[in-house]
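Translate sequence into structure tokens.
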Amino acid sequence: MFYVMNLVRIPLKFGKIQGIFSCAFNRLTSLEGSPKIAVSNFSCNDNDLVDLKGAPQIVGGSFYCFNNKLTSLEGAPKTVGGNFYCCCKSKRFTEEEIRAVCDVKGYAGHLVPLFPL
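Result follows.
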């Protein structure tokens, strides 16, 4: 996990990762170096991403990319076995836009908080 490490890039290259992969709460501008396959959840939320280039092609669990500067879903996973949460600072992607680029088995859209913020 590379969670809250103030990273601007992922320092390693991964093929397949069995557990949860989180590179959330950094300053990433690219997902280059991410695993190609994430068997469980993949979290890249709260970074400075403008697209999803370098993201895993297959995510077995849920994909979290909210709180970024996304203007494009280019590079999004081809398949997500769980939910695809995407609510960005610069553009709100619709469920249809997400499903047009990714086969999502679960919910696709904005992250809905479980309690009022």
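Note: Residues 95-101 form the longest helix (7 residues).
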